[in-house]
Every structure is written in structure tokens, then in C-alpha cells.
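Let us begin with a simple case.
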Amino acid sequence: MNVRMIVGIALLIGGAAALYFGFQEASSFASDVSEMVTGSPTDRAMQLQVGGGVAAVIGLLLVLTGRGKAS
């Protein structure tokens, strides 16, 4: 297992966790109130969802491209 694969797995797990917490934050009471007033969920929920998605995609790409190479 090379460094690229380890970093990819870490990003994939971290991204999935951030996505999970982002969706939890989006369905929270504070986000519901913010959405009622402003029409959009809280910034924190959006940041967690977008950041988690980006990290998960990068992690997946690193895992898939780092598979066949030995270090």
C-alpha cells in the first residue's frame, strides 16, 4: 500500500464523515430556522456538504489511480 492510496483512503473516509455531518447539520433546528428566514440552509451545513463531497471524490480518485502502482 503506497502513500497515495493511504491519503486517498483518509480523504475518502474524512469526506464521507463531513458529508454525513453536513446532512445532519442541514436537518437541524437552527438550519430549519435559517432556511425559513433566508431561503437557504446555514453556511456551515453547505460548507460541510461541499467540502465533504470534494474530499470524497478526490480520495476516490487517489485510491483508484494508486492501486496498480507499487512504491
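The second case is a distinct protein. As before, the sequence precedes its C-alpha cells.
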Amino acid sequence: MKELFMSAGKFFAAAGSKKSGKGAPTSSSATDLAKAMSGLPVHVVSGVTDLVGQVTDYLKIAEQEQTRRTDIIAKRDVALAAMQHQREIMSEMIRFTFQERAAVLQKQFQALDQALAENRPELVNAALNSMVNVIQSSPFKSVQEMQQALGTKDFVIRLE
């Protein structure tokens, strides 16, 4: 019986060392275990065989789950990188949009000042209407359109 436990211990130690990179149980450890079990009652052999099968199944499942965890981590990293990239694009888009609006409004104020200086009510009206149109348009509409476009795989940014 002591020989059975020694052989089983070697077998399970070899099976457990697979995780640490030392390899799977060897055929010699399995042979030693089989030799140690010869002459034992059938229920003992059956129990040890079931135990060996359960340990082997556990090790397979543990390896599969480790692979799944690695896949999940990789997918997480890809998703985080994509979100960071989208954030950078959106931030740049918002910055550009507000710079553009500021420049347009500045030009419209200059046109308004000139129209007032020249006493031209039709130009004052046009400048004010143009300012109102710029102010009423949402700068986030273009950001929303950009976000939707980023979701399509055919999207291309054109710099003009």
C-alpha cells in the first residue's frame, strides 16, 4: 500500500508540475502507478483510476480557463486602446470645431462692426443673422456624426 501512495504521489506531482513548466506526468510515473496497483482490490484500483482521471480533467480545465482569461485580457486591452483612440479623435474634433466657430464669429463681429461704421442696416442684419445661425447650430452635432462614422469600418478622415 505504501508503494501505491508513493507512485500516486509521483504521478500527481508530475501532473501538478505541468503548470510550473516542468512537463506532464511521464509514462514511467504512470507505469509505476499501474505496477503499484497490481494485486490490489478492484475497488481500490477503480478509486485511484477515478482520482487520476479527475486530476487530469482538472488540469485540462484549469489550462482552458487560463487560456480564456488570457483571451479576455487581450480583448479588454484592445477595447481600451480603441476607446482611448476614439477619445483622442473626439477631443481633437471638439477642439477644432470650437476654434473654427470662434474664427467664424470673430469674422462676423468684424463684418458687424464695419456695417455699423458704414451705417448699412442690411449688412448689420445679415451679420447678426449669420451669427445667430452659427450660435444656434450645435457643435456637438458634428461630433455625433463623427462618432457614428467611427463605428463603420469604411470610415476615412479627409484632411482638406
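The mean pLDDT is 79. Residues 68-150 form one domain.
Keep these points in mind for the review questions at the end of the chapter.
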